């Protein structure tokens, strides 16, 4: 029931029927693919961290991203200015630091434990969005986020009791 409640919270937070732009559906579909890929990555990473270091996993993941991004850039290349280059460099640094921490986490604990911390992305995402773009979260995001966090905490408490 908690998983269903959490997914319901996602639907409420995204509010797909309250959108006015058709292109938003592409973003929703991309997010679903992202979640599926990340879930496979999380489980697979747990196995890989038994023999590989977090740094090597980040390095090889980065190489794959460079190749995939390079191929994508061939079809959608745009000129860069210094501000964009700085933003991309910062994004790469945050992504690398986060990936190293992720691989260290899945090496030392279960993927299910690590996944519980991903609920904090709602809070950090809302905070960064406000600080950078001065955009307040919608009521839908707050309601859905509350449901997602409540479901996640409930699952975490049940898992702790089961141990």
Question: Can you describe what's shown?
Answer:
With 163 residues, this protein is mostly helical. It has one domain. It has seven helices and no strands. The mean pLDDT is 87.
List keywords for this structure.
mainly alpha, 163 residues, 7 helices
Q: How confident overall, as mean pLDDT?
A: 87
Number of strands: 0
Largest sheet: none
Helix percent band: over 70%
Strand content: under 5%
What would the principal axes of the Cα set say about the shape? globular
Q: Poorly predicted ranges (pLDDT <50, ≥5 residues)?
A: none
Task: State the gist of this model.
This protein has 163 residues and is mainly alpha-helical. The protein has one domain.
Write the layout of secondary structure elements.
Layout: H1 2-14, H2 24-48, H3 54-76, H4 82-108, H5 111-116, H6 120-133, H7 139-162
């Amino acid at each position: 029931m908690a998983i269903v409640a959490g997914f319901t919270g996602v639907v409420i937070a995204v509010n797909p029927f309250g959108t006015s732009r058709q292109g938003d559906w592409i973003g929703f579909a991309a997010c679903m693919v992202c979640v599926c890929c990340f879930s496979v990555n999380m489980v697979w990473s747990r196995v890989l961290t038994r023999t590989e270091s977090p740094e090597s996993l980040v390095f090889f993941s980065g190489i794959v991203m460079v190749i995939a991004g390079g191929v994508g850039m061939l079809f959608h290349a745009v000129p860069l200015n210094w501000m964009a280059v700085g933003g991309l460099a910062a994004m790469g640094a945050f992504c690398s630091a986060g990936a190293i921490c992720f691989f260290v986490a899945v090496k030392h604990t279960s993927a299910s434990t690590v996944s519980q911390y991903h609920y904090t992305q709602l809070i950090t995402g809302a905070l960064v969005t406000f600080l950078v773009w001065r955009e307040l979260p919608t009521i839908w995001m707050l309601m859905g986020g509350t449901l997602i966090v409540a479901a996640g905490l409930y699952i975490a408490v049940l898992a702790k009791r089961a141990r």
